[in-house]
Each structure stands twice: as C-alpha cells, then as structure tokens.
Amino acid sequence: MQPGYSQTLPGDQSVVISFDRGDSLGEASYTLTPGAFHFTNSADQGWDLTSRSFQVTLDNSQGKNDFNYVANGEAGDVPAGQTRDLNGKQPIVVDFDRGDGQPSIKQLDDGVYRIAINSQTNTWDLFPAASESSLAQSQAVASAPAPAAP
Hints:
Layout: E1 15-20, E2 27-32, E3 36-42, E4 46-52, E5 54-59, E6 67-71, E7 74-78, E8 83-88, E9 92-97, E10 103-108, E11 111-118, E12 123-128, H1 132-143
Parallel strand pairs: 5-11
Antiparallel strand pairs: 1-2, 3-4, 5-8, 6-7, 6-9, 9-10, 11-12
C-alpha cells in the first residue's frame, strides 16, 4: 500500500493480512474482523496495524425539535436541547429526513456535528461544529422557519 491509500474489504468476513514491520523486525500477520484499522509506525516496533474506533457527537442543544436518525442501521433520536454520542468500530453513517421528504446520508468523521437548518435549502442538515458555516447555519435556526421535524 502506498501512503494515504485505503482499502475496503468485505465487511462480514475475516481477512488475514501480513506485512513487513520494517528494518529487521520481521513480518506481522493479523486476522482482521469487521471494523476499521490503520497502520502506525514507531522507531522501536516498526510498522503495526491497530484497530480504530469512531466517536461522533450530534449536537441539538440549540434545537427546538427532536432530531430522528438512523446510525449504522439503528434508529435513534437527539431530543431538543440535548446531545447524543455515537461510537463504533466502523465509520458512523447517519441517515435522516431533511424535512422535505428527501433522505440525507452522511458518513461522519470523528467530532461534533451541530444539527441546524441549512439556510440555503431550508432543510435539516449536520454541520461540523468547528466550522464557520456551522456557526452561521446554527444562528440561522432562530430566524429560519423550521421544516417538519424528521
């Protein structure tokens, strides 16, 4: 694998992966079960493969309506004024109704996502909390008419 490369393997099967740790550290071999993994490198242990976990927070603290979603196949909600943490061994995929009858499916990186009205489409959306657009969008929540609750 080249640097920056990722590979998706069948999600419901175990896969054996072997690789050279580098220098004179020899070969490593692992049986991977479903999940996400990444390579790490240290001077004393060389290359290694470790499992990765994912953590997302859905932030509805400024919302006036509950936010309903399906994340990785499980239904959930974020009550108005609250947050919800989602964790897993695979990337967090959130499916929700934008409020106009159209579904939105988003794969989220680790972090906090603000639930707000997208001022350009007047529909529900998820915005990375650290972004400037998230701040502008969440400020628009108070002035924009809310779509029907998903």
